[in-house]
Amino acid sequence: MFRVNVRDHIMIAHSFRGEVFGPAQRLHGATYVVDATFAATELDADEIVVDIGLATEQLHAVLADLNYRNLDDEAAFAGTNTSTEALARVIADRLAERVQATNLTGITVTLHESHVAWASYERPL
Predict the structure, then answer these.
(1) Which residues of the chain have pLDDT under 50?
(2) C-alpha distance across the termini of the chain, in Å
């Protein structure tokens, strides 16, 4: 399996519903380092998994729609706890819609909350 990873970051605000979240039920901010990993079992005709420049541009475009937003105010997230895991899935799904590489078999998006905590979502293509 071949993998190519690109990285960017976002800053968001949000709150959670549910006692399990304790003080995070109140509005708070989060800054995530975002890794997008593209997987392929075979290289394409150019001997690459995906064009790194294109992958970087597409990740940045997906994140631009979320950056500096209060996710509580976004219709796409109405009724959703925007946990790190849930947000990783949304980013992976939006990225999958944008990337046009026929050899790709999957995308994994990892959101790093800090140097000691992160969550990922992996989806097939």
Answers:
(1) none
(2) 14
